[in-house]
Design a protein that fits this description.
It comes from Arenimonas fontis. This is Non-heme iron oxygenase ferredoxin subunit. Keywords: 2Fe-2S, Iron, Iron-sulfur, Metal-binding. With 104 residues, the chain is mainly β. The chain has a single domain, classed as 3-layer Sandwich (Rieske Iron-sulfur Protein). Helix content is 0%, strand content 42%. It has a 4-stranded antiparallel beta sheet, with no helix packed on it. A 3-stranded antiparallel beta sheet has the order 1-10-9, with no helix packed on it. Strands 5-6-7 form a 3-stranded antiparallel beta sheet, with no helix packed on it. Strand 3 and strand 4 form a beta hairpin. It is globular.
């Protein structure tokens, strides 16, 4: 299991904003949802496209390629053409710094 990867200071990722960090060769999308930080693999489960290119709408993100929507809190696929969830990763906040990691 890999070490925690620094994402940013909490003040650098405001509510509704997102960023991408890499843990090895895994891109991880980190989103601030009203002060709660969530991390998902930055790949649409339908077509292996970057979710970070999509639109955050409340607690969901829409893939710009074919319109699949995912729950940012759980990674659950919410509509076709995606049926498989996106991998969710742990997030921790220590001393006002956000961390995540690929825990597979």
């Amino acid at each position: 299991m890999s070490d925690w990867v620094r994402v940013c200071a909490t003040a650098e990722l405001l509510p509704g904003e997102s960023t991408v960090v890499w843990d090895g060769d895994t891109p991880i999308l980190v989103v601030n949802l009203e002060g709660e930080f969530h991390a998902l693999e930055d790949r649409c489960s339908h077509e292996d496209f970057e979710l970070s290119a999509g639109i955050v709408d409340g607690d969901q993100i829409e893939c710009t390629l074919h319109g699949a929507r995912f729950d940012l809190r759980s990674g659950e696929a919410l509509c076709a053409p995606a049926y498989t969830p996106v991998r969710k990763f742990p997030v921790k906040v220590e001393d006002d710094v956000v961390y995540t990691r690929d825990d597979r």
